[in-house]
Amino acid sequence: MKNTKKEVLRNCIPAMVCMVISGLNTIIDGLFIGRNIGEDGLAAINIAWPVPAFIIASGIGIGVGCGINYVSALGKKHEKEAKEFLKNAFVFLACAGILYSVIFEMTAPYLMKMLGAEGKVHTLAVQYTRIIAAAALLQIFGAGLVPIVRNLNMPIQAMAATISGVCSNFVFNTIFIFVLQMGMRGAALGTVLSQLVTSVIASVSIKKSGALSREDVDEKRSGYIKKIFLGGIASFGISLLPTWVLALTNYQCLSYGGSRTVACYAVISYLVYPAQNMLTGIADGVQPLFSMCAAKENMEKKEKQIKGVVTRLVVCVSILVMLLLFAAAPVFHKVFSLSSENYEPFVQGLRITAISLLFYGLNRLSITIMNGKGQHQEASIIIYGEAIIYTPFFLFVLPKLFLVTGIWIEPVAAAVLTEAVCAIGQLRKSEKYEYTKAG
Asked: What is the pTM of this model?
């Protein structure tokens, strides 16, 4: 059991730090923009965020899909097949990055209007989006290579790549926003250049691992890419869902409170997003362990031990973060330079949203375990059911009952329902397993 704890912590802690640091990118941008441009800048970057988030989610999905298949192939002693998954992941990332650059560059003004931007906020959002779109290739590689490195059993190197990217983002933002006074363009440029730093460090780690040593190329490229896609579609959903919720919530904030409420929600999302990333990181950290258990025989006991350790870790971390956000809400109001009129809705919103973290962490762990064990369909049904059905339902019904407070209640309601769905699914899976075993 002691070895299991060490193994879980060795994988989880770097992944958790990695995801938290990654989430800090949004806080860094928010701090610089809030102090240099003001609430219009905060609203603009919040409205524009779905574009880089979609690119990043695609990279994470491809990286995780590659990692799951790579670990599974290695567990079955299919080393050549494992290397083919890595090679095809690079092709997949490159093609997706080029495609996104063309699409988002052409549609930026129209997309920002669809997301609710108007006037000065629209101008700032388009400026940000166009630079992000032009460098989509850097964004998608920066996001996609980190989970690949993690699945190559190099969690420390994955963490180092992410930390280097975030530190460079801070430096670039200081230069471009404060020194050169480039505003939103500076924030976007700092973001994409930081992803370049992450990509380079992750690429060097992959090369040094020897996993991409040259061998005969398997021409059945489409088969590998299809498996990578299926393995990553749930992780894509997990990564993108907060942004989908952000876009819907921005719309409701505009409807029920105007741009001031959007700015208020922007800061809440800056603070909650890294916390969600932290909990997702714990799940991502143990994904390779569950994938390896699924690939080998007679690993049920080991799998149960890993699940017990990581579940306790999720509960402890989520409670600590929840209490921190609850206590420090008034301080964050001052740090982000929000107006005095926003004090009460911001503090109330952050404290209510923080309650959702406990349930969020548990259901993300359940979904990641399913996906890591090859149960891609079940994992995808749960995450996309949350995204398409009951999150929009709660977000549009609750504000009608409780106005702006209903917007803050939505993440709690959605997280509780998702956890209930995960628990029911796991119970049915367990009953089916016991029935099959008895038969």
From this structure: 0.74
Burial label, 251 (beta-carbon count in 10 A; 0-12, 13-18, 19+):
middle
Q: How many degrees, rounded to 5, is the angle at CA 435 between CA 431 and CA 439? A: 170
Q: Residue-wise over 357-386: b if at least 16 C-beta within 10 A, else e?
A: bbbbbbbbbbbbbbbbbbbbebbbbbbeeb
- For 357, the domain range is 2-438
Of 244, 247, 248, 250, which is closest to residue 265 (Cα–Cα)?
250
Q: Is 78 exposed, middle or buried (0-12, 13-18, 19+ CB in 10 A)?
A: middle
- Measured CA to CA, the distance from residue 192 to residue 100 in angstroms comes to 14
Backbone angles phi, psi at 48, to 5 degrees: -80, -15
Q: What is the 3-state secondary structure (H, E, C) of 355-381?
A: HHHHHHHHHHHHHHHHHHCCCHHHHHH
Question: Residue 241: what pLDDT?
Answer: 76
Count of other CB atoms within 10 angstroms of residue 298? 7
**DSSP string across 191-210:** HHHHHHHHHHHHHHHHHHHT
Give the number of other CB atoms < 10 A from CB of residue 107: 14
Neighbours of 215 (CB within 10 A): 11
How far is Cα 30 from Cα 38, in angstroms, rounded to an integer? 10
Q: What is the pLDDT of residues 351-376, one digit of tens each?
A: 999 999 989 989 888 888 887 777 77
DSSP code of residue 174: I
Dihedral-angle region of residue 151 (phi above 0 means left; psi in -120 to 50 means alpha; beta otherwise)? alpha
- pLDDT tens across 170-222, in order? 888 788 877 787 777 887 888 888 888 988 998 888 888 776 665 555 555 56
| Helix segments in 76-211, DSSP class H | 79-114, 119-134, 136-151, 155-173, 183-209
* Torsion sign (Cα): 218, 220, 222, 226: negative
Query: How far is the CA of 1 from the CAs of 8, 119, 285, 341, in angstroms?
Result: 11, 59, 18, 53
Q: What is Dmax (Cα atoms) for the chain?
A: 71
So what's the pLDDT on residue 24? 66
Contacts of 111 by beta carbon, 8 Å cutoff, 6+ apart: 51, 104, 129
* Separation of alpha carbons 111 and 82, rounded Å: 39
Check pLDDT > 90 for residue 397.
yes
CB 357 within 8 A of CB 276: yes
| Tokens standing for residue 115 | 């997301």
First to last CA, the chain: 31
Number of domains in the chain: 1
